[in-house]
Amino acid sequence: MKTNKVVILRHGESEFNKLNLFCGWHDAPLTDKGLEDASKIAVAGLRQHQMQFDVIYTSLLQRAHQTVDVIRENLKYHDVPVIYDWRLNERHYGNLTGFNKRQVANKYGEEKVQIWRRSFDVLPPEITPDNPYYAKIRNNPKFKDIPKDKFPDTESLKTLMLRAIPLWEQEIMPKVLNGQRVLVVAHGTVVRALMKYIENISDDDIMKVNIPNSVPCVFEYDLSSGQRMGNIQYLADADYVKKETEKVAAIGN
Ligand SMILES: O=C(O)[C@H](O)COP(=O)(O)O
């Protein structure tokens, strides 16, 4: 039986992850720890499982690019082409962008914050011009080619899926089923979106899914039927994955 694997990875810890701030489309860089984990966790996992790639897909955001760079540098993937696509950007966090998750929970309640963070279709309030990150995001030159009518002011997992799944179905999956080895380096909500779609996870169950930084997730396909095989494989120590997943699920301090 001929099979092929596709790997999906969330970037390393960003400055906003560290400060526990809603980030979304704000272009925060990785922290030193984020850079280190990209190599110690992501690269180590890929290397240990002898993963090779023909093409890498990523978003327009630097935290994903820096993660890609660490992988390319360490695994000598300089010849592997990188495709940058806005449809892999993190979900736009609306007017929550830039605010501390704990402080927002103290103001609106934990339940409300978890609905904003993890529900399938509840949109955070739209970003308004008085938000300190509004102009930075709107004027980010990297976003200049995004169609005006597609540029979001807030997004839920559902609306993110409306942009990310067509890319997966029309560009990424045909390559995977053609035998190309694809690595996707993206963001927490993008990984949740792809997982929901691939694994057919219900709108309720996806609320419990949290994605740790820097841990490669592997999905295997049977090339003759195009069907998914087996379970998701995480290329990191199980205790590490559990600990990091719990950290992401929590609202933090
Ligand atoms: O955009 C962000 O703040 C993070 O990348 C994801 O945050 P979350 O885990 O709170 O959705």
From TrEMBL:
The active site is at H11, E90. It comes from the Eukaryota. The record marks H187 as: Transition state stabilizer. SMART domains: PGAM. Substrate binds at residues 10-17, 63, 90-93, 101, 117-118. It catalyses: (2R)-2-phosphoglycerate = (2R)-3-phosphoglycerate; (2R)-3-phospho-glyceroyl phosphate = (2R)-2,3-bisphosphoglycerate + H(+). One of its GO terms (biological process) is glycolytic process. Keywords: Glycolysis, Isomerase. Gene3D superfamilies: Phosphoglycerate mutase-like (3.40.50.1240). PANTHER family: PHOSPHOGLYCERATE MUTASE. HAMAP family: PGAM_GpmA. This is Phosphoglycerate mutase. It comes from Musca domestica (House fly).
